[in-house]
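Final report, results section. Input specification for complex C-07:
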Amino acid sequence: MSEAKKIPYKIYLEENEMPKYWYNMRADMKNKPAPLLNPGTLQPMTAQELSAVFCDELVKQELDNDTREYSIPQEILDFYKMYRPSPLVRAYCLEKKLQTPAKIYYKFEGNNTSGSHKLNSAIAQAYYAKQQGLKGVTTETGAGQWGTALSMACSYFELDCKVYMVKVSYEQKPFRREVMRTYGASVVPSPSDTTEVGRKILAKYPGTTGSLGCAISEAVEVALGNPGYRYVLGSVLNQVLLHQSVIGMETKIAMDKYGIKPDIIIGCAGGGSNLGGLIAPFMGEKLRGEADYQIIAIEPASCPSLTRGKFAYDFCDTGMVCPMAKMYTLGSGFIPAPNHAGGLRYHGMSSTLSQLYHDGYMEARSVEQTKVFQAAEEFARVEGILPAPESSHAIRAAIDEALKCKETGEEKTILFGLTGTGYFDMVAYEKFHDGLMTDYIPTDEELQKSFDTLPKV
Amino acid sequence: MSEAKKIPYKIYLEENEMPKYWYNMRADMKNKPAPLLNPGTLQPMTAQELSAVFCDELVKQELDNDTREYSIPQEILDFYKMYRPSPLVRAYCLEKKLQTPAKIYYKFEGNNTSGSHKLNSAIAQAYYAKQQGLKGVTTETGAGQWGTALSMACSYFELDCKVYMVKVSYEQKPFRREVMRTYGASVVPSPSDTTEVGRKILAKYPGTTGSLGCAISEAVEVALGNPGYRYVLGSVLNQVLLHQSVIGMETKIAMDKYGIKPDIIIGCAGGGSNLGGLIAPFMGEKLRGEADYQIIAIEPASCPSLTRGKFAYDFCDTGMVCPMAKMYTLGSGFIPAPNHAGGLRYHGMSSTLSQLYHDGYMEARSVEQTKVFQAAEEFARVEGILPAPESSHAIRAAIDEALKCKETGEEKTILFGLTGTGYFDMVAYEKFHDGLMTDYIPTDEELQKSFDTLPKV
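Structure output:
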């Protein structure tokens, strides 16, 4: 492919160019991610144990460190066609504004009603639930992006969808709740009196506004207690990274088509679903020694699991009912400071990404939220897209790298993931506009206290 | 082009296929739209009179009934590349759900941060303001779509942007306001003490929550009183329909490419900006006798300007400071019932569309809002896009036509305009979900009372 081929503002793949399979990075990793452990026995979780919580096919995907390619089922390909391909955008206007010789590209996942990349895995998980003949699925949601995505997916396959939404979000983000209701989901504020764990917590802390950990515990309890239901999760898990590889696959096909090779690949990282998806095929080449890329995970300074966490086994939920994973973690008791408005607030990081980071295949940086919102606003004004706070972590890093190029004169090609839009995050933007947004970096003492909650494995 | 060419889910034009000019329907109309009148002299507004309010180039476009094609300036084409082409979507999933032999297509304008087609004209109006060396522009906004679009356009060209936002919306839709602030606009709740008309109204009605008419009057006053400023408007005007023709041009190019000819074209209609843009090139063929299409305007039963209004000269604003236009109107004093949540609440209709309707080139229908929201939800669940209430009027009609085809077995091709997304309209969706949404059709007596406000011209 000629390097001289004119690069359009936006590259959309044709239907016949779209990826037909998901790529499993684990197949090419020498050091596989550590297995999930049963918190009771401390033994690796078996497929049978996991199948009480997850669909059978998803259990297989979760445990499969060997199969390189998974064919995407036709029904999922059909759904993908409704909102994919997502555009790979050349940020000509941002480059001009920054006066940088760098070439900046971003893969924009926000052009669907869930507002983010979460739909890529939601539809897959709903599909396998349907295939297994299940009645429905349960999940938790914080801000609501994952809950929205899952509602859309369940509506498409006519599955029942029960979402436990952290009570404070349920009350403060009624619009997200209404989007989920539009798609027929039942949305319950958590903690609730519909579960044992919810009732216990309500009795102990009557005024609590809820937490993600509690919502997970409720959703898992309901899945375990209702025949024909399973629990689903939107990030962290290996299966989720597998589904999200569609982001990177599309990106790579589009770049190859125009002879573009990224020097730097940047993704924001909370649980790792977007980062793991975006980098997948590039990381594959790196793991196989076929190409090299500088890969950077960006996380909030207020929730710095990769940059300041420990690589250890930890609980995936604060309720400690889920399997334990080996990952970079701040401890399952970690809660970001109340002023944190930028998302990406999970205490740990995908096992797969944690292992890759540990083995030196990628870097990590943390950024403070006021600088993130500055980047968000600068980006919105020239590129015309109002980014989600999460995505704006990657924008911040991409701008910083482009400004370095301006100093050095290097014409690097920078790729970043723009995971979603910020339409439901205007409260945070308002804080920023009103000068009320502050930064907080946890002290070493605070982190140590949180590390003390790590299980002794 | 072969009819057999496989139609993808979404058709995106390549950059080199994009329209290079706007099409002016008036050039092909035998009966031109009636001229704007000076409300003082009742004489046609001259270019000089209009140039106190509007940019010079926009005045030219407003008055030009002859030029068929306007080249789109390169700077606007560059901006269009950031969010255009918009996809022309084949609604395969909706067709399947309805089990209709009809083929349904929609042109989706919601994939940009303003959330609607309004940006197509906002960027043009900002460009001409910048070309004229102006400092800034003023406008009014109700729900905020137009204000958002204009903020984005002004940010791009570094123009000052003052938005008068109806006070009740300013307070109830803080998120829209924050999006505008993200783009650097100053947003003032109207009525305000920043203008003479605002102060008068506040003195007379201290507790008023504002109206579009008042906000227009304030925005016009500020434009007239500040050298280097002009007023801009997002619908109704001929210039706006001209810019919005880019919607129809793209649609027609995409359909021609795949050998598709629509039998029915459906657009929602408030002031007429979307409908006029979508149908432009098709109407051109119809006016020139080259092809025939069934063209249907859909309006709310609670604000039925085409279906129940009078074709007469009327004030464009309730403050009666703007020129008068000959149009289908309910009278400038008309206000939709308080339970109306579906948008499209302007009392009149574009002069150009009014003339075309009067001359029999298009039909009009009105629909009740609960049926509109039923269609919205049905569409969202199968097509994955949460539609704006405005756009859902067109969805309602498209579904109804497709169901007729199911009965008759006709394989009609239906095209409709999906103008935007409903992310900021969840209060209305909530009402609908909670069963609190009602319908209201104004009585003949109520309309007669409103017609009594028509000027005697």
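Chain A has a mean pLDDT of 94. Chain A has 18 helices and 15 strands. This concludes the modelling results for the funded period.
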